[in-house]
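Schema walk-through. Below, the input block comes first and the output block second. Nothing else is stored per chain. Lengths vary across the set, and this one has 86 residues.
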Amino acid sequence: MGGDRLAEVRYAGNDVLLEEGIEILTAPVCTSPDEIAVTCEGETMDGEPIRVESTADAQDDVLVTVGDRTLYDGSLLAVLDRGSSG
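--- output ---
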């Protein structure tokens, strides 16, 4: 994939949120204590929590949720490729 893992997960999460038309109050802020697993948290304009995560066990995948709704659960690279193709 190349690049910084934390940034890639953040970009993928933001791409999914934009694709789904989610109105963001607080953009997801990402942390990666072990530099492998990445978790990002933010908030929608409606006050729902935004969560973007990529676990150490599934580093090639990303899960994006808003409240209790799953917006995306799949390939991190596929989201990044969609975003880069405009």
